[in-house]
Amino acid sequence: MTTLRTPVEARAWLQRHGVTISEWARANGFKPAVVAALLAGRSQGNWGEAHQAAVALGLRSPPAEGEEHPLASALRAPSRVPAPAHATRSAS
């Protein structure tokens, strides 16, 4: 397991390489505001895009290899939402 960075260490890492928060965020597919909030300590990176960015920055550990995503079964299951009524009417 690698050692996790603190937000201060992650910000210093970017600065040592001359990379702005916005540049890093865009290059890695994240919103700059999300990354800035992580590095300023306003976000803990617990959910969603903030979590993904925190993992990419080394602020949080990635899930264990082979561990199933909590939504994996929901994503595999067929839709349980009935078709709209207008979609089932026959043309007259």
Which properties best describe this structure?
single chain; 92 residues; mainly alpha
Write the layout of secondary structure elements.
Elements: H1 7-16, H2 21-27, H3 32-40, H4 48-57, H5 72-76, H6 85-88
Helix pairs in contact: 2-3
Overall strand count: 0
Question: End-to-end span in angstroms?
Answer: 65 Å
Radius of gyration: 20 Å
Structural class determined from secondary elements: mainly alpha
The run of helices and strands is HHHHHH
Q: What is the general shape?
A: elongated
Average pLDDT confidence is 88
Q: Uncertain regions: pLDDT < 50 for 5+ in a row?
A: none
The tally of helices reads 6
Query: Percentage of helical residues?
Result: 40-55%
Major beta-sheet overview:
none
The proportion of residues in beta strands is under 5%
Q: Any overview of this molecule?
A:
- The protein is mostly helical and 92 residues long.
- Helix content is 49%, strand content 0%.
- It has helices at residues 7-16, 21-27, 32-40, 48-57, 72-76, 85-88.
- Helix 2 packs across helix 3.
- It is elongated and about 65 Å long.
- The termini are far apart.
- The model has no long low-confidence stretch (mean pLDDT 88).
What is the structure about, briefly put?
The chain is mainly α and 92 residues long.
